[in-house]
Amino acid sequence: MLERANTSQAVADVVIQRIISGELAAGDRIDLEALGKSLGVSRSPIREALIQLERDGMVEMRYHRGAFIAEIGVADVREGFSLYALLSALPARTVVTRRDPEVWAQLAEAAEAALAAGTVDDFERHAQRFRRTIARSAGGPHLRSLLRTFNGLVRVTSRLSMEDDLEHERALFRAEYDAFRDDTPAAAVAATVRHVLGTGEHAVRVLRRRGVLPDSDGPALDVTVEDLLTVGNLVGREGDVS
To answer: pTM for the full model?
Structure first.
């Protein structure tokens, strides 16, 4: 039974977990009645979850036939992390530029707690607090809304990466935090992008190892790390994202 305030998000999480565990594969039909019964929820949150999953490219809604697991490729995962990296980098530059003492104290508290965390749960909670503080303090409503749309595949596979190698994720986070403390906006943007993309690449390796993702990359966004860094530094200026 689900015990989360956002029930539709919890339903989506369950479906994603079943996909990345291999319990559900591309082409499988989702038994909505059985899903609702097993989770103890009504049809309404299930429908909302399917809308999110369809938006993330993980589910296909076929007219008069139901919901089916979509074919997910390496390029799909990388696309999600690339977009999330760019959106996360925009407020990062502004936070370092402004250097607001109150915001910085909150960031330092969250970062130090994440770096000292002994479990994946504790690390994830404090790292998310670090990211939310940046978005709230330097991002406007449109940016914050867009960032919340990455609450499905990107978040769940990020968790998968942490569970596989927490120290790898901790090292990426430490590099980002150090870049923030260096007081160089461009360095903060670069470290944020490399952190998010590094997490995504580790998640891809884990999913390939599990047989969830194919060995071939398939078509992808024609974008490089340098492209993301350039956009993050050009757009993420004082006042441009608030």
So the answer is: 0.82
